[in-house]
Amino acid sequence: MATASQPLTAIVTGAxxxxxxxxxxSLTDRGWHVVMACRxxxxxxxxxxxxxxxxxxxxxxxIDLGDQASVRxxxxxxxxxGLPLNALVCNAASYQPLLKEPARSPEGYELNVATNHxxxxxxSHLLLPVLQRHPSPTPRLVTLGTVTANSEEFGGxxxxxxxxxVGNLEGLEVGFKHPIAMINGKAFKAGKAYKDSKLCxxxxxxxxxxxxHDDTGVIFNTLYPGCVAETALFRDTPPLFRKIFxxxxxxxxxxxxxxxxxxxxxxxxxxxxxxTESGVHWSWGNRQKPGAQAFIQRxxxxxxxxxxxxxxWDLSMKMVGLG
Length: 323
Fold this sequence. Notes:
By secondary structure, this protein is α/β, with parallel strands linked by helices. Helix content is 42%, strand content 11%. It has ten helices and eight strands. It has helices spanning 18-29, 41-50, 68-81, 111-132, 170-173, 190-216, 239-253, 259-271, 301-304, 306-319; strands spanning 9-13, 33-38, 58-62, 87-90, 140-144, 219-224, 280-283, 295-296. Strands 3-2-1-4-5-6-7-8 form an eight-stranded mixed β-sheet, with helices on both faces. Strand 2 (33-38), helix 2 and strand 3 (58-62) form a beta-alpha-beta unit. The longest helix has 27 residues, at 190-216. The radius of gyration is 18 Å and the shape is globular. The mean pLDDT is 92.
């Protein structure tokens, strides 16, 4: 249990809205201290107050996951707090499906991949030694996955604009800078760039497990809490989509999950003993039922290709300055 002198502490990226905010709420409700790692700290403070999170239960630190210098500055700022680290929740995501031309990170990388994959990849590496300092309870590194990146599920087969597919990493192999904006080196498709970045998250979770679980004791997991159709993730989609999509998920696919429930599910994967198996992807299914229980979701061949994942790891290490 958390204590006043030494609280159990989690870092949650993208904690100012949506799944990240309600994961923070659920974790603090269960006695954890949460570092809300966000780009806009004023927004994060207001959001925390709005859902009733006590000020004493959170620390606010700035991070822009699309900027590797910001990631490094965040880690230094976190270590200066003296807080322990018992869990890292990689939740933040960039999703800009209407872009016709790629946005770029300060390093020159396409921004979905720079934020969702490379930023979290770097953050995870830099914080692993901190996680290892606090072995009780078992430290966990939890990453939000998505059904749209797993072609074993119906949502992962939807060809709009195209299913997730990183190919043979051709775009990364040649440096992933202008004019290259897709991991497979093909023409830019903003919605697919997001899906590809989330596929990378799920591939790297397995690779972290394979390479580091036995030596570090850290549990590495991804999860899909269900379709959280009313979050700020969709703020850059057309207004009609934002109106229809939640209705469609509630009434047609039956995959809709509320933001509070999604936060409860993230907290379960962070805390509960039922989720101590490492290297797996937890899901509650894409058709939600009352009282649904989590299960280990099978991953696609794209996500489980060991040679491709190992190469993605090596290329990513170089791209974040660790290789």
